[in-house]
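Researcher: Excuse me, tokens okay?
***
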Amino acid sequence: MKNFHTGEATFISHVHLNVSDLTTMVQFYENVIGLHVLEQSVDTATLGVGDEAFLTLHVPVGVKPKQRKETGLYHFAILVPTNRDLGVVLRHLIDLQIPLGAADHIVSEALYLSDPEGNGIEIYADIDSDMWTWENGHVTMSTLKLDHNQLLQLSEGEAWNGLPEGTKMGHLHLHVSQLEEARQFYETLGFQVVSELPTALFMSTEGYHHHIAVNVWNGTNIPTPEPETVGLRSAIMQFENKEALEEAVQRLQGANYSVSNEQNGYEVKDPSGNTYWLKG
């Protein structure tokens, strides 16, 4: 199984969320999701697995509630190492009576839920990439019924101890205002469209099923939320190295996207106002 979150790939390594109640949200991400706090202050908490941080919660000054029909987060997706691990997660969430969605996407098996402030979360395990089907640069994906019983049988006897070592941020799925604007932006960054619907695009590097997805399921020409709004604050996009990062920045600037040179990286917004920190 190829590792699509290291090496030559460009991927989402960390997600930052705006939240209104830090205590409640930290408790949820520890007790329900299975992350642990690596660092915390009065208005910020960084969580992860082992010593790998991949989620930070912020309470902005003048925080505003999450709005409907705006651009921003559809869900962020946490990737666990195996489907046995996913089975352990499933059993844990059933025990807690957490409302769940689920799907077999052919390339992965996934569970879906929301945190207490309405942020979408996917927890998933990839199916071996040697079993994925590709045709003309597009990977075959679907939304089939997940075999819950098989996952539970695989995890029989496995105790819940939080998410396992090797868990990481797998991908990011966003609401955008216009698909074609989004396509141009992400292709400029170096992503390829590997699957598409009339209302959604799935994009990746190095032959993954998707590192980023975008949709217009909230409608087209929708507004960008104010910076203090609960939801996606920013995400870190990790490049292979400094050279790959600089080449991407040059392409962005050549296409007239505004890029800010910040400490240890660059800041850029997609056409719908979703913010990225680019690092290499």
In short: The chain has a mean pLDDT of 97.
